[in-house]
Amino acid sequence: MIQREALEKLTDWKSQENRKPLVIRGPRQVGKSTLVKEFSKKFDHFISLNLDLAEHKRYFTQNRSLKDVLSYILFDFEVPKKSEVLIFLDEIQEEPEAIEQLRYFYEEFPQYHVIAAGSLLETLTNPEIHFPVGRVEYMVLRPVSFAEYLESEASEMINEAYQSIPVKKEAYNKLLNYFHDYTLLGGMPEVLSNYIQHKDIVRCNKIFDNLLTSYLDDVEKYAGSKTEQQVIRHCIRSVFYEANNRITFQGFGKSNCKSREVGEALRSLEKAMLIHLVYPNTEIKPPLLPDHKRKPRLQLFDTGIMNYYAQLQRKLMGSDDLSDAYQGKVIEHIVGQEILSTKTQSHHGLQFWVRDKKGSSAEIDFLIQIREHIIPVEVKSGKAGKLKSLHQYMEISSAPVAVRLYAGEMTEQEVKTPSGKTFTLLSLPYYLAGKLDQYVEWWLNKN
Fold it and tell me: How far apart, in whole angstroms, are the C-alpha atoms of residue 114 and residue 407?
């Protein structure tokens, strides 16, 4: 399954005048190699080197200049020097010398289009591996979004209904059913492709098993010490059960692990893009600055793998309202995944808000910044009058609108806080989580 938006970004990169080698980041098996192979159709020649293989690694292990490296590669692949060439360095973390050579592609051979990718968990414990600062650029590839799943699975009429703003009411039930399936499956490309072809969740579970095995194999192969290996393995297995919770490092996952050990392990998994540690905001005005002294919320890279390992699939299959499953954690998690799907830079993450005062604690699921406004987003099934935390936020905020995501049709209503302050509550069906920015812009433009 090809991620169309990512392909468009690669096309933009190709046309840049001062183009740098591109490093694609993302968790293992998120579709990096497949994406680059599809992109390669835009070139005269495509050279794909897997640096996990000795025959490809050898180009960079003999202390050659980049000029000589290129001469050998172009000759072996029978590529004319003046043709438009895409060079793909896959599993680049396996050869530090290849990483070092990236700087010289930018400085000496800018005519070549160079993309590097790899499973970055392997680099985390190796202090010798450093990507050349300022001479490469990065792109994050995240799991497939609901919009991209819909393009592959639904009819043109359904896709047109989803893309229209506001969404067509007659499409509500069908879109919600598609989103229910997407929430169950998650966004890993192989899982979705397999399901679209066979409509069999059991076949998909074998893929989830293979994914976990590959992550654990990474730890076995590259952890710096036996203790580090054990802690990271424990954290990988525990994150599926702690997803969407605010966590404490000390004793994480009902273990005897120390806070420092768990913190280092979780930050390693975050660098590998397997998890996100989402620290809360306590302010209501830009810039949004997370408070790292408070407990973070744990977000996994994919909801489908969480559902499988936390044994939530059966509950989801029998649920009419996704807010009822796992105390609402699954629907909040997939909303976070959809919001992240709109962000292509690793430093662009999720935001949420807390207020911890005696007798008036509150928590908002997500914050999004549109223009100068910090818009609160709650994921709820209840009526507008029961959104206690949202009312507390709007009491002190200048935001003109708040958003609720729920299992209902799109509505707009004027709501009063307990003190009498009025604001607009824009209620949207869950499946529009990936289009929040567009809908808030739409509302602002018409008001």
Answer: 45
